[in-house]
Specification:
The structure holds 2 protein chains of 2 kinds. Chain A is α+β, with helices and mostly antiparallel strands. Chain A is built from 2 helices and 5 strands, in the order E-E-H-E-H-E-E. Chain B has a 5-stranded parallel sheet, with helices on one face. A 4-stranded mixed sheet of chain B has the order 1-9-8-7, with no helix packed on it. A 4-stranded parallel sheet of chain B has the order 14-13-12-18, covered by helices on one side. The chains are: A alpha+beta, B alpha/beta. At the A-B interface, helix 2 of A face loops of B.
Chain lengths: 110, 351
């Protein structure tokens, strides 16, 4: 078993959660949020993780090197609301050992 | 009034397969869906994406799956009310229900099966503070009547296919068409992108990119939109109409007010028995329901639909004896008079 990484997630109500995320379960950040129920079911990961709905948009607060944005994610963010320079789609960020200490904030529901 | 045995709300994979299972029990179905075509999310959102966990299909495209389901249920002659959203439900004295859509179409059935997935697809509304004041007063989230825009100034926002396609279409109708998008790149069919480029070069479509619309001006009707470009001062662009086209997102919608027990944006059902809700005669199947251990998978929706139909049969015909038959044994008798059955065994003597 690979060790878990620690991730700090600020939910939509501004509450900070420090959670353990597994690196060996092929999970992405959106799924970590769902597994800890940090946003109500039906308000996050609506498209299931295809970068087609932006319901898992988050703002990256730490300076971790993240996987480069794919075309689907880029184009989805071009049409999403509340987008900032540090916006990413949680479903496109895989949890790897390099993500240890990552800090993100969930974007408002839209 | 449309009458049927099982009224299905939602024409996604689970709703479509319900028609098949009901048909085996000689129950007729009618489906209501807010989208203009059957297939639900699979057809609307990701028709070209593969699915790998449909039993016996190592890989199938979502659009092909709903296509095959439609073919599978054809002989059971389902009725469809498409492009209308189920709005209200009224229980009648005889125990049946009348469901009325947003367009006033009425449907009556002894059993209602909600297979609404994540809800009905509604246009995504940009977060502009006063936008609600201008809805149908110059702000339209979808184009229903293109003639509304004849000889008017129109601003379209968005970067997908519908923004491109409507810019192209309205360039022949409206006085002026302006397309505003946050990027210089567009996510649309290449033909459409090329066509908009051509129209831009000809001066028939004004393109403002990368830019965002931050506000709307006007008293009782839109007179302009506030355009914001990075590192530039905001300005007002005069227009008669503002059409934000940012795709669709599912909302549970009016079903949430039907008196059903809701948990986690889903309808609670009895999973020990038949997926009935807290209101007898109303079932919820597929992604729209929840129960301990629920998984939102198409294959689970098929299972739920099957058990639900058995229960619906008992509810409609409480005194009729019935046991489940394998289709291989019983064949399939369609309401259209067709019959499918296993070929008879060949018997031949050896001399």
């Amino acid at each position: 078993m690979n060790p878990d990484v620690k991730i700090k997630i600020t939910d939509r109500d501004g509450v900070l959660h420090e959670v353990d995320a597994p690196t060996d379960m092929a999970m992405n950040l959106m799924e970590v949020v769902r597994s800890y129920e940090l946003a109500p079911e039906g308000t996050i990961g609506i498209c299931g993780g295809m970068a087609m709905c932006a319901s898992c948009q988050c703002y990256v607060k730490s300076d971790h090197e993240l996987p480069e944005m794919g075309i689907d994610e880029d184009m989805m963010l071009a049409e999403a609301f509340h987008v900032e320079d540090n916006s990413r789609l949680g479903c496109q960020i895989q949890i790897t050992p390099e993500m240890d200490g990552l800090e993100v904030e969930l974007a408002p529901e839209s | 009034m449309i009458t049927t045995d099982i009224l299905i709300i939602g024409a996604g994979p689970t709703g479509l397969f319900t028609v098949f299972e009901a048909g085996l029990l000689k129950l007729r179905c009618h489906l209501i869906d807010a989208l203009p075509q059957a297939g639900g999310q699979c057809s609307e959102i990701y028709p070209k994406k593969p699915i790998y966990d449909i039993p016996a299909y190592p890989e199938i495209l979502a659009g092909d799956l709903t296509g095959k389901l439609t073919e599978q249920i054809k002989q059971f002659e389902p009725g469809f009310t498409l492009g209308e959203r189920a709005e209200t439900i009224d229980k009648q004295e005889d125990g049946s229900f009348i469901v009325t859509t947003n367009k006033g179409t009425k449907h009556q059935a002894p059993v209602v099966a909600i297979a609404g997935g994540l809800g009905s697809f509604e246009p995504r509304k940009p977060p502009i503070p006063n936008i609600a004041n201008f809805e149908d007063k110059g702000v339209e989230y979808m184009i229903r009547e293109p003639e509304l825009y004849r000889d008017k100034n129109v601003v379209i926002a968005g970067g997908g296919d519908s923004a491109l396609d409507w810019s192209i279409f309205l360039s022949d109708v409206a006085k002026s068409v302006t397309l505003v998008h946050r990027r210089n790149e567009f996510r649309g069919a290449l033909d459409s992108v090329d066509k908009v480029q051509e129209l831009k070069n000809e001066g028939k479509v004004n393109l403002i990119t990368p830019a965002e619309i931050k506000g709307i001006t006007g008293e009782n009707h839109v007179t302009g939109v506030v355009i914001s470009k990075k590192d530039e001062e905001e300005y007002v662009l005069e227009t008669d109409h503002f059409i934000p086209l940012f795709g669709l997102s599912p909302k549970l919608g009016p079903i949430a007010n039907w008196g059903l027990e809701i948990e986690k944006n889903a309808i609670k059902v009895n999973n020990a028995l038949d997926y009935q809700t807290n209101i007898p005669g109303i079932y919820a199947i597929g992604d729209v329901n929840t129960y301990p251990g629920k998984l939102k998978l198409i294959l689970c929706g098929f299972h739920e639909a099957t058990l639900m139909c058995q229960s619906a049969f008992k509810l409609i015909f409480p005194d009729k004896k019935y046991v489940m038959k394998y289709t291989t044994v019983g064949g399939i008798d369609g309401f259209d008079g067709t019959r499918k059955e296993a070929p008879k065994a060949v018997v031949k003597k050896i001399e």
